From TrEMBL:
Its EC number is 6.3.4.2. Pathway: Pyrimidine metabolism; CTP biosynthesis via de novo pathway; CTP from UDP: step 2/2. It is an enzyme of class 6 (ligase). Keywords: ATP-binding, Glutamine amidotransferase, Ligase, Nucleotide-binding, Pyrimidine biosynthesis. This is CTP synthase. Residues 2-270 form the CTP synthase N-terminal domain. One of its GO terms (biological process) is 'de novo' CTP biosynthetic process. The keyword Ligase applies. GO terms for molecular function: ATP binding; CTP synthase activity; identical protein binding. The lineage of its organism: Eukaryota, Fungi, Dikarya, Ascomycota, Saccharomycotina. It comes from Lodderomyces elongisporus (strain ATCC 11503 / CBS 2605 / JCM 1781 / NBRC 1676 / NRRL YB-4239). Catalyzes the ATP-dependent amination of UTP to CTP with either L-glutamine or ammonia as the source of nitrogen.
Length: 577
């Protein structure tokens, strides 16, 4: 097993994740099996209970693990399936060590950060790196470890020390360290001092960078590269310049241009790779090249209005944005997202700020398609319902994800079935004594008492109930009988209303294996261009080279090319469980 550690200096948020996943992708194009681990130096054990306000979206894995959104990045780039153990936090390591101590595993010795915590970290890494993550079912050959935070923080100190020991534990030809640094431009001059200081910090902690990746707004000058090489005691081939490019999907190609793999394969003494794997890797590279170059050449735009909450915090919808990006690349369109705060669409906003209200509606009406993503809580619900109504009545493509499906159903129940005031049991506006049938109810088999961990989580099967010829979503999934997607919800459509709703035209086209839960809705093509909702979250399984099908449908319908996309023969869907 070869380990590539990606750490960061100077400041956080300079694209360590993108660099790490791009490096992983390049290793994969060599024909290697690649996995990844994300280390987060914070105390939380469960990312699911962390606020999206602070941390961005919570990403859900096949096994139901709710993790930091960076793991999603790896899954999307590397086309792999990770587990909840691939996320390491300080909290998890400590609780493991404390648990062992309670059981008496340390025989009453003093338990310390060094060696007990640092050993636990190393053991965890070695164990998790071996979990097979792709369809070969074989142990990976390379593990990318992204160390969150910046080196030198108090929080990351135990991890840095653990990695320092780790390089000796696994041997220096199985270990490479890439340090990501920043080269700011001040008065037109590229400054290398912050990088020098960051490398000095790193060295003082016993880690030597094998490569220094310099983030810069513009292309790095040769003299800057030479200067960094000289002051940081590395060869010029060990300095990689990563300037801002058209999209993050160009980064792997940028690294390749600089022959990053030549150095890395030498350092890691990567031997002969079997012909079949080599071929697979080459194909992957080819596909990636094709995708990025066709993206550069597409000039037509598709505009999607994303109607949600906290839309100023784009990170809380990261997977949704990525899925839209993947889908638009497949459709050869440039993606424009209009961020619409759903409360701005509500009647109340008319009094509060009329110009804001009109502006929000302007965005919705100008958009080619409307997306209502998942979410919790009752704020902004009426605005989403209004947007769904607009989409349904005006034949504008609509995709509702999780809450978005429930919104579409509530809207339909109110305005087509005529049950005014119907809503979800989740919202404060729902009152038992009103005697109005709720559209969305609490899922009966979930424990109502505990809050954390009572959701329906992780990958589940959904079976289609309609033939492909009557069902656009099934066509998008290549005609497959069933799909496997990731879930994260507590509420579901009220089974008592199903017959009535279907009679009026909205079809429940997919159900869970018991046939009780409604998981997909669709208006027939005779009634609407594209009006689809999914109770699951398709965005968690979207891949750069294999866009999520509901999103592909939305973008294609919004761009007016749904028929072309459906006619293509590359919609093979290979679900997995
Ligand atoms: C991604 O992985 C799946 C299996 O895990 C495989 O069927 C599919 O072909 C892969 N996609 C690409 C683009 O390599
Ligand atoms: C970036 O995109 C433009 C078109 O928008 C294209 O002309 C240019 O070559 C691209 N640059 C890179 C580095 O790919
Ligand atoms: C109303 O909303 C606009 C933005 O749409 C903002 O510029 C303006 O300050 C707001 N006015 C008030 C009174 O809040
Ligand atoms: C949030 C989450 O999925 N956490 C998991 C990460 O890994 C530990 C150790 O296996 C699990 O116990 C946590 O549940």
């Amino acid at each position: 097993m070869k380990y590539v550690v990606v750490s960061g200096g100077v400041i956080s948020g300079i694209g360590k994740g993108v660099l790490a996943s791009s490096t992983g992708l390049l290793l994969k194009t060599l024909g290697l099996r690649v996995t990844s681990i994300k280390i987060d130096p914070y105390m939380n054990i469960d990312a699911g209970t962390m606020s999206p306000l602070e941390h961005g979206e919570c990403f859900v894995l096949n096994d139901g693990g709710e993790v930091d959104l960076d793991l999603g990045n790896y899954e999307r780039y590397l086309n792999i399936t990770l587990t909840k153990n691939h996320n390491i936090t300080t909290g998890k390591i400590y609780s493991k060590v404390i648990e062992r101590e309670r059981k008496g595993d340390y025989l009453g010795k003093t338990v310390q950060v060094v060696p007990h915590i640092t050993n636990a970290i190393q053991e965890w890494i070695e164990e998790v790196a071996r979990i097979p993550v792709d369809d070969t079912g074989l142990e990976p050959e390379v593990c990318i470890i992204e160390l969150g935070g910046t080196v030198g923080d108090i929080e990351s100190a135990p991890f840095v020390e653990a990695l320092r020991q780790f390089q000796f534990r696994v041997g220096s030809d199985n270990f490479a360290l890439i340090h990501v640094s920043l080269v700011p431009v001040i008065h037109g001059e590229q400054k290398t001092k912050p990088t020098q200081a960051a490398i000095k910090d790193l060295r003082s902690l016993g880690l030597t960078p094998d490569m220094i990746a310099c983030r810069c707004q513009e292309e790095l000058l040769t003299q800057t590269v030479e200067k960094i090489g000289m002051f940081c005691h590395v060869g010029p081939e060990q300095v990689i310049a990563v300037h801002d490019v058209n999209s993050t999907y160009h980064v792997p190609l940028l690294l390749k241009q600089q022959k990053m793999m030549n150095f890395l394969t030498k350092k890691l003494t990567i031997g002969e790779i079997p012909q079949a794997a080599l071929h697979k890797g080459e194909q992957l590279l080819q596909k990636w090249r094709q995708l990025t170059s066709s993206h550069d050449k597409s000039f037509e735009t598709v505009t999607i209005a994303l109607v949600g909450k906290y839309t100023h915090l784009h990170d809380s919808y990261l997977s949704v944005i990525k899925s839209l990006e993947h889908a638009s690349m497949r459709c050869n369109r440039r993606l424009k997202i209009e961020w619409v705060e759903s409360t701005d669409l509500e009647e109340g906003m008319k009094q509060e700020n009329l110009s804001k209200y009109h502006q929000a509606w302007h965005y919705v009406c100008q958009a080619d398609g409307i997306l209502v993503p998942g979410g919790f809580g009752s704020r902004g619900i009426e605005g989403m319902i209004a947007a769904a109504k607009y989409a349904r009545e005006n034949n504008v493509p609509y995709l509702g994800v999780c809450l978005g499906l429930q919104i579409a159903v509530i809207e339909f129940v109110r305005n087509v079935l005529g049950i005014q005031g119907s809503t979800s049991q989740e919202f404060d506006t729902y009152k038992e004594e009103d005697g109005i049938k709720p559209s969305v109810v609490y899922m009966p088999d979930v424990d109502q008492i505990k809050l954390g961990g009572t959701m329906r989580l992780g990958i589940h099967e959904t079976r289609f109930t309609l033939d492909s010829k009557d069902c656009v979503l099934r066509k998008l999934y290549g005609g497959s009988d069933a799909v496997y997607e990731r879930h994260r919800h507590r509420y579901e459509v009220n089974p008592e209303l199903i017959d009535e709703i279907e009679e009026k035209g909205l079809k429940f086209i997919g159900k869970d294996e018991s046939g009780k839960r409604m998981e997909m809705i669709e208006l027939p093509q005779s009634m609407h261009k594209f009006f689809v909702g999914t109770q699951y979250h398709p965005e968690y399984l979207s891949k750069v080279l294999d866009p999520s099908r509901p999103f592909l449908g939305l973008v294609a319908a919004s761009a007016g090319i749904l028929e072309d996309i459906l006619a293509r023969d590359d919609l093979n869907y290979k679900g997995e469980f």
